Amino acid sequence: MSETYDFLFKFLVIGSAGTGKSCLLHQFIENKFKQDSNHTIGVEFGSRIVNVGGKSVKLQIWDTAGQERFRSVTRSYYRGAAGALLVYDIASRETYNALTNWLTDARTLASPNIIIILCGNKKDLDADREVTFLEASRFAQENELMFLETSALTGENVEEAFLKCARTILSKIESGELDPERMWSGIQYGDASPRHAKHSHGTQQQNRQQCNC
What we know:
There is one protein chain. By secondary structure, this protein is of the alpha/beta class. It has a single domain, classed as Rossmann fold (3-Layer(aba) Sandwich). It has 7 helices and 7 strands; from the N terminus they run E-H-E-E-H-E-H-H-E-H-E-H-E-H. Strands 1, 2, 3, 4, 5, 6 and 7 form a 7-stranded mixed β-sheet that branches. The longest helix has 17 residues, at 158-174. The two termini are 19 Å apart. The relative contact order is 0.20. Mean pLDDT is 82; it is low at 196-213.
């Protein structure tokens, strides 16, 4: 049976290598911890349909490699992303210090209006913490980001991070701030949307290409 949904949102998971980006994605998609996690080579992909504010939304998630040598490859996936999880490791000051660069990339290459949630991952490593909640919270506030601490190991706040981002995108669509019709918006109407009937087949094909579906 084919999936039906009201909207499709393109998401990115970005941040330095070793912050647990692939594990966050795996926990969200599979609802379990990814034991044998190696560094992502290039880009990995996952998708899941969630209920957001009474709407059925398909999240199409691109997990990007954090290593510098893959930067040119991963940057090409930023275009047309509606939302992003910007991830650092609470036990690694180095990954936190790199956030500004990742943020600049996202806002320059994806869209200035991209909805970003800052995720302090590996909350289970609280004893080894190098970045305080308050410090990261201040960074998020200064850069107009939402903020949560997550644990891909225990699953804490993982679902909430993706859903919080999706809820914000949906509310901006409903308020008219975001337009799914706009090219490279990272948003598409799905089969279940009443707007779908108004779309010609050609437009659907065009949208798929824009969204890298």
